[in-house]
Batch of 3 targets.
Target 1
Amino acid sequence: MLGTKRDMIGILLFAVLILVVLPLSLDLFRLNNIGKYLTYAFVAVGLVLCWGLGGVLSLGQGVFFGLGGYAMAMFLKLEASSPEATAIQSTPGIPDFMDWNQLTALPWFWEPFHNLAFTILAVVAVPTIFAFFLGAMLFRRRVGGVYFAIITQAVASILTILIIGQQGLTGGINGITDLRTLLGWDIRTDAAKYILYYVNGGLLILVILTAQFIKNGKIGRILVALRDKEDRVRFTGYDVAAYKTFVFCIAAAFSGIGGAMFTLQVGFMSPSFVGIVPSIEMVVFCALGGRLSLLGAAYGALIVNYAKTTFSESFPELWLFAMGALFIGVVVAFPTGLAGLWQQYAQPLIDRALTRRSPTAPAGPAAPAPGE
């Protein structure tokens, strides 16, 4: 159910790359950047299931990334806002941005985030529940294609406006910042950054294996059928809306985990990672790497973000235009992405080379002639 031998070798090589090769070859600053890029790979892997297999293009995955990130940020901010640490505030014991906005008590929905177990549950559950209600509402009414994409884009815009407008509850446009410790453990030290990088990489491998299990199982085959011939699948008795909602929720859960790890890696969360632009960028990661390949999407997230970091330093005004051109070019020129190019051109060459090098099996003894 986890795929062919070639699939498992590919996952193993990816694990060796991010867990062994990169930590040994990069300094801490660049490795921390790679860790940030890997958090976007969670979203890209979810989009492979949602868009590549199921044909459901979501332009609002930043919503679920942000919900997971904000859930983790709320816990970390509450830990950093103890009465002792905030004694100079007019209302000690609440986050600083709440005090600046003249709140005198912690809002009720912040209270459960004092507990780490609840926070970890919320990182996955809140994006999943939100995706369930949104997906069930739309898919039951057979909303799909470009209309679904536009609605998810609108949801991303609405949530961004809501977060910015409720500054006293969410930190506004600055987001939730100054995150320092996790259960008393300083996440800003060099040792902590290494540990968080490995936790991030390990979780990504686990998510890829989970997605691989879904892709190669019965659900994966039904999702492909939905993508290609939705009406035919509906006429055979399958609940199309239920399957679409399921894969949409899985993609949301993966995105929420990525958002939480982003908060831990970077040390803050803001609405700039929730809106339309980051959501479209996440689709570009998947499209460039290959929307039919789990590993291709993960590599796409690494490549695009590395290019963004490199080129935006030299051409900051042109980078967004380049991102849009890249998305259009990928979809038009090679819709299967880099993974498709690899499978079409590079993989056959490797297979031929391996076939030529493999020793020829020795011939067996000749069969006796009739009558011998």
Target 2
Amino acid sequence: MKIELVNLRKEYEAIKNELKQAIENVFERSDFIFGKDLQLFEEEFAKYCGTKYALGVDSGTGALELALRALEIKEGDEVIVPAFTFYATAASVCYVGAKPVFVDVDEKTANIDLNRVEDILKKNKKIKVIIPVHIFGQPVDMASLIKISEKYNVKIIEDAAQSHGARVKLSDGIWHRTGSIGLCGCFSFYPAKNLGCYGDGGIITTNDEGISKKIKLMRDYGRTGKYEHESIGYNKRLDTLQAAILRVKLKYLDERNKKRREIANKYRILLEGLPVRHLEVKDFAEPIYHMFVVRVKKRDQLRDYLAEKNIATGVHYPIPLHLQKAFSFLGYKNGDFPVSEKLAKEVISLPMYP
């Protein structure tokens, strides 16, 4: 028997009758673009996150790009991005002509190091936005980040691509969903996410009416009527079929996230006493374990051993962003972000699916 890293088939089997009916309903209505289920899903997801608006788009990458464009980030601007995350966070900054400024991460949590963020903001006046990534579904210390952003007058776009349903406690003592705290929250619905569709998809959450209106225009060719275009826009829409699938899955998200936390707790108990380092969960965070990631010194040997036992593993991520060839034009070098480099050599993702 092989143990997969992620098992999408298991989730499908549990709710396939509902999924088939939802898909059939879309076929019957034939409202494939901006249809009924998209409108309902946007309303339901906004309510779930605690925001006024949610706008379905083509992907998590597209969400980040459109959020940056809505904030009018452009050439000459600079945006803070953690060095240890997926490529898309930094690439979206490049898409709008701005410059990613990498920051090392906290060794205990793998999230962006806020002390280093402030160090950069003290010196660099070109920074317009910070993009915190709630890595592996573990929330960033948003209460502290809000104070920093207000002090230096920079905006926050949350990369919540891995944190559907995660919560973080703010200075008001209230728990808030990730994606509801910055000016925009950007989510991916890639199939393997905690809330994933059966293709590509994404969504942007916001409480700002002006930003919402801009994104609505940009995601659909900048049009105000069928053949009337107010501005230069893009084809970055979430289709109705995917929205219908996501509506079904959203009903089970909290339950499945709870099971992920239970699995994570079992891992911690069973791995006790072994040469394994866990990422720390802070008191202000309620993670949702998109991945269960641990650190081991002999990572590659462990992966080989587990593969022999038919246990799949992953590495998220083997190369930090500053050492990716795609970002070599930024001029970073090996040694610039030692924590990110160390994590890239030690992290291993263990099977995680409820």
Target 3
Amino acid sequence: MAEKYDVAIVGAGIAAAGIGAQLAQRGLKIVLLESEDRPGVHSTGRSAAIFVQNYGNDTIRALSRASFQYFQNPPKEIFDYSVLGDRGILFVANEAHKPHLDELLAAGEGLIPISVEQAIEMMPLLNKEQLVAAAHEPNAKDLDVAGLHQGWLKQIKQNGGEVRTDSEVLSGSNASGHWVLETKSGPVEADKIVNAAGAWGDVVAERCGVRPVGLQPKRRSIGVLPSPQPEQSMHWPMLVDAGETWYMKPDAGQFLVSPADEDLVEPHDAFVDDMVLAEGLFRFEEMMNFEVTRLEHSWAGLRVFPPDGTPISGYSADQKGFFWLAGQGGYGIQTSAALSELAACQLMEVELPTFAEQWLVDSLSPARFEH
């Protein structure tokens, strides 16, 4: 016999855990249905996240601003510490990418132009022969993705929620005002469904008789290099090419280097394209007085975008009780606190948070794809 819930959440990454924590603490009986053998495998568990106010469009920036206070002072009964840490970002440009840096400076908030000499003082490995301009964003923060994700999963369980792994949703039907889901671990009944399945969001929608919205999974690759100055580099800022052709984040005596790839792929367990990574490492090496001689390891993850690049949060018009929470792209971690709270209120049809102005709610609505 199927277990009955108020809400079944498909997925167990950061989006699913965030809305699950919100709903569970509000007294709803919930279950997370994860297709893999553990939560957060494909995107959340492969994120080198950093909180950057200057990322994204107006919707992303509004959600990021609203998330910041939560990250800075998370609930003490769930988190023992702030999930933010000091880092800063150094945007750098060669001659070809200087116009991109000028655009960033014109549009960004809290971005400070600095001299080449100041940039090299912050990052001693920069190549003075290549570097022509730089800007510093001192308020960019490291974001403890694993700590945040595990904290919300803990909150779900403390409030009586469940997390089921190896529970891929095979089909779903809405009968007599509630949903019946067939999963690999058995049937589940729920009054409402949240589709937080990441790259598989459209697949889940179709299995539940809902029109897909055109989600676009894109691969992002990371190569891990040993730092030539492990202790000193722990305090260096993240480096970002103003032309968005590579970035590097210091991490525990290593460099996490990405070619900033966004190759459209089918939903799958992502793997690195060696040629794409090699090209990104070459561009990084050109800007540095640092020869890449050894790659310690590498990985790839999926970032999932709707066609217009703005996340989706709201009920589908196709099927009663089917709620979209998808398409957070590369901004899913840094917007997660605010988006989780907003989505929970939308799902429960209660008063929205004060930051949720009407334009913001409208910009997230799945109605823009359901013509």
